[in-house]
Amino acid sequence: MDDHDMGVTHVIRGDDHLNNAARQKMIYDAMGWDVPVFAHIPLIHGPDGKKLSKRHGAAGVEEYREMGYPASAMRNYLVRLGWSHGDDEVFTDAQAKEWFDLDGIGKGAARLDFKKLDHVSGQHIAMAGADELILQVQDYLDATSQEKLTDAQVEGLSAALDFVRTGAKTLPQLIEKARFILASRPIERDEKAQAALDDVSRGILTELTPQLQTVSWNREELETILNALAEAHGIKFGKLAAPLRAALAGRAASPSVFDMMLVLGRDETIARLNEASQ
């Protein structure tokens, strides 16, 4: 009766209510009311094929927000659970509104798949506009009770965004890759980064610093100097890159050394190398 009084035209619900539809239709027919369109969609099951529950992981959208999945990615993934539009896996809100229809709903139960969610999330991070992505990062930091980015950090992240977003599946992964530009001196180093700064590596960094004072600050010139330095010491560039990553990012894994140097700029790069070589 509530549905009739409110003018409900479509009843879309889980297929566990399918048995109710026949009884409810009898009431509509007995009252002489127009029968709404009934659509029963598959339930979402966990990775083990059983009905989704708390034991399968996050239970509410707030938890997925705190895990660092962009809202647009969650909407995309949730729409795609149990519904399809051809082979399209990744789409915008506007496309979802345009494409969605009841005919695309599958008959089998949908299954929560974190690998697919990660893939969709990574695609949304990759295709988001710069301003939009910065806002998503700020929203994530707020949701997890972390300090929001300062204006200087926003400026630095914006400059690094094109390469730190590459390969990032979640916002925390993006933030970790961007840690080099978000950090301030003294640079906090993890254990592996600290191990890369032995006496020999510190000596090489000390040798490099004056060469960077006068070089033209572009990728080609930086590659020439760093490769020549590695060759002069009889080592492969990878051996030189390890202490450079430790000095610039404080991490053993980081974006390209050249990308970091270009974004940090000459003065900050040299200051970090000097700090690490002490």
TrEMBL record:
Organism: Maritimibacter alkaliphilus HTCC2654
Source organism superkingdom: Bacteria
Family note: Belongs to the class-I aminoacyl-tRNA synthetase family. Glutamate--tRNA ligase type 1 subfamily.
Pfam family, one: Anticodon_2
MF terms in GO: ATP binding; glutamate-tRNA ligase activity; tRNA binding
Protein name: Glutamyl-tRNA synthetase
One GO cellular component term noted in the UniProt record for this chain: cytosol
Keyword match Transmembrane: no
Gene Ontology biological process: glutamyl-tRNA aminoacylation
Transmembrane intervals: none
Residues of the Aminoacyl-tRNA synthetase class I anticodon-binding domain: 135-276
Keywords noted in UniProt: Aminoacyl-tRNA synthetase, ATP-binding, Cytoplasm, Ligase, Nucleotide-binding, Protein biosynthesis
Start and end residues of each Glutamyl/glutaminyl-tRNA synthetase class Ib catalytic domain: 2-118
InterPro entries: aa-tRNA-synth_I_cd-bd (IPR045462), aa-tRNA-synth_I_codon-bd_sub2 (IPR020751), aa_tRNA-synth_I_cd-bd_sf (IPR008925), Glu/Gln-tRNA-synth_Ib_cat-dom (IPR020058), Glu_tRNA_lig_a-bdl (IPR020061), GluQ/Sye (IPR049940), Rossmann-like_a/b/a_fold (IPR014729)
